[in-house]
Amino acid sequence: MAKILVINCGSSSLKYEVYEMPEKKSLGKGLVERIGEGVGIISQESLKGKHSEEAPIPDHRKAMELVRKALTDGKAGIIGSMDEIAAAGHRVVHGGEFYAESVIIDGKVLETVDKCSELAPLHNPPNITGIKETINLLGKKPQVAVFDTAFHQTLPPAAYLYGIPRELYDKYRIRRYGFHGTSHRYVAAEVLNMLKRSEENTSVISCHLGNGASVTAVRNGKSVDTSMGFTPLEGLVMGTRSGDIDPAVLLYLLKRGYNEAKLDKLLNKQSGMLGLSGVSNDMRDIEKAAAEGNKNAQEALDVYAYRIRKYIGAYAANLPKTDAILFTGGIGQNSVSTRAKICEGLEGIGIILDPKKNEATGRKAGIISADYSPVAIAVVITNEELQIAIDTYDLAFKK
Ligand code: AMP
Question: 92: CA distance to ligand 1 center in Å?
């Protein structure tokens, strides 16, 4: 039995959870928000109760100090002392072409993750800070890096090369990397459990639909294509990201007063469902507005589902046979109507939803396809933190 601390450092947030392994039991979790924004907040839930505290949190170092305090808090803490933690696992966004699997962190790994910061300037630096601060807390105990990109390192060149001069790949490593890999890997394995199938000769199309969203084609347990690309901007229409767009639009806008910073903000923060609907980036608000007759919200939902259907169709065309498609992420797990809308029109390629099962499954995991559907449709609850805990336990303690 070992207690594993899972750390997920974002640019202004830090999520953490403690798992008892190999039992896969969560002992509690917490979130530090608004790091570097004046007054921040830490909130934590454990088996003993809830704890929350507001404090100035200028950086991740201070955030980790608050995490240590909250974890060992006498009243609502998750553990008695830091000595109980046997190892830590970290979400690291970008592992470039260096890592196809999770890895025990040493000086060389930290150097390589730092090198990959060029590819993920907003994400890898806080990930590195999180690792260094955890080393301060846990000393020489094993720490593991679990990369968002690793699962997609099995993509064949046909799927990862862009149609640009090869020298740009050779020189700058411009290619499709893909993200959400930890989630896609977890749910693709979960759906096999649900369907009682093995990896071999099974193909799954995994739709991770959260504020960020991506579709991945998984064949024999390996990612063979994914909709996010060189960055998480490519692919689906997301909460605030545009997804696929003709790159010439950017050239057009550059000539009309847009600069790099403005384009970055436009495509990453002001586009997607927010930009299209003019209502919100949150699917709940958009669904409500659409039901009340807001035309822009209705069209945004149409664009959203249409883009996902396009990817499902493209991946089905490149798999020998699709056995299952799955929905996960905040929208995939919770929005019955979005799942129904996406599946409308997919009957022709053997993806047939049972509306009653979809309704009854609601926000739980379950199979929602018609009994006679050639392709199974499933709702799967993703759990990236648990996958990180599993990888950490396996690498640190299972030889
Ligand atoms: P995630 O990034 O996976 O945490 O997903 C967050 C998104 O899930 C939110 O922005 C909402 O758009 C969506 N979401 C959460 N709950 C619901 C719900 N009950 N119905 C529709 N969308 C939801």
Answer: 23
